[in-house]
Design a protein that fits this description.
Length: about 350
């Protein structure tokens, strides 16, 4: 980490860095001096083009994903503005990313720069003593962190949850994940939009596909189930001929004649999630679907159909993926839908 003093690149006897904004307004850092400072910073890492970050109120709000992206660059230059900001021409020509720490106004870019450096530093191996702690931080997995406690076991009438003092590692892990989910749902439900819920679901998750013909890519569906640890997929084929044809094509799928038979195998407590490929008036928002899946104590069954009408008579909650005009292969739609729920952040 290197600090570059912008004042060293000022012009004239007073080392001027700023000037009045055209039209009206306050003082701005001038583009020529900014360019000189950037060239000096870049010269310290010859052969590596710097990734230039400018903290400003107009930037994208900083997230863990942005921090992880910055940490993957070999050389990052953070340009700290002041006064009313910097000349827009420098931003247009040299800044790769504008970032904001939130909807507030600061005196300059130094505090956001400290925040960025601190967050990036945590991702450098060895900075945080216990590497696992970084992975378990809030936002790293897409959820908020679980509550934490230390000694004494009783303080001002408040005790430590018994599960944490019992020594059962599996129960502790389950408790931490459940509490992380609860906190996220109560405090930051918006985070569910980019969070994977697979590791927070302790029950079995299964997939059923209602086939209208023999064109379903059964091998592809089976691969998707392996990827997300769903076990062997169910395939519902209404006719004997279709069932026999599918059994001959793929031994990994469980071929049945009706959704009712699938539900008999899954049990009464299973939550059925009907995934329509086109819009439906009674469909839930994806965040609401995630919330209900996380809060459900029994198994979860995702049901897809080549023909959306096949899903209408099935009891369960529902959501949809695509507009009716979008032509996407059926197997790809299944993969995209499951990735939105179960894929990595």
């Amino acid at each position: 980490m290197n600090l570059v003093n912008f004042r060293d690149f000022g012009r004239g006897n007073y080392r001027q860095l700023d000037d009045y904004a055209y039209g009206s307004g306050g003082m701005l850092f001038a583009a020529p001096q900014l360019k000189d400072a950037l060239d000096f910073a870049a010269s310290r890492h010859e052969g590596v083009k710097p990734f230039v970050v400018y903290p400003s109120p107009q930037g994208a709000v900083i997230t863990q994903e942005i921090i992880e992206t910055l940490a993957n660059h070999e050389h990052v230059v953070i340009v700290c503005g002041h006064y009313e900001g910097i000349d827009e021409r420098f931003v247009q020509k040299y800044v790769d990313l504008e970032v904001s720490i939130g909807d507030c106004v600061l005196t300059g870019g130094e505090v956001p720069a400290m925040l960025i450096v601190d967050a990036m530093s945590r991702l450098v191996p060895g900075v945080v003593g216990k590497g696992k702690a970084v992975v378990e931080d809030s936002f790293y997995r897409g959820m908020l962190d679980n509550p934490n406690y230390t000694r004494p076991a009783m303080w001002e009438g408040l005790g430590v949850p018994e599960v944490l003092t019992g020594g059962n590692e599996r129960e502790i892990t389950h408790w931490r994940r459940r509490e992380a989910v609860s906190r996220t749902l109560n405090r930051r439900p918006d985070l569910l939009a980019r969070a994977s819920i697979r590791e927070y679901i302790s029950v079995d998750v299964s997939l059923a596909v209602i086939a209208a013909d023999d064109c379903v890519n059964l091998q592809g569906v089976a691969e998707i189930c392996r990827l997300y640890d769903l076990g062997r997929p169910y395939v519902v084929a209404r006719t004997h001929e279709l069932r026999e044809a599918m059994k001959a094509r793929c031994s990994e799928a469980r071929i049945l004649g009706s959704v009712r038979k699938v539900l008999e195998r899954e049990g009464d407590d299973v939550l059925v999630v009907r995934v329509f490929t086109g819009a439906r008036n009674n469909s839930l928002h994806s965040l609401e679907l995630k919330r209900r899946c996380i809060e459900h104590d029994g198994g979860i069954l995702f049901v897809f159909a080549q023909n959306d009408d096949e899903l209408e008579g099935i009891e369960g909650i529902s959501g949809y993926l695509f507009g009716n005009d979008e032509e996407v292969p059926f197997c790809a739609k299944i993969g995209i839908a499951l990735d939105r729920f179960l894929g990595k952040r």
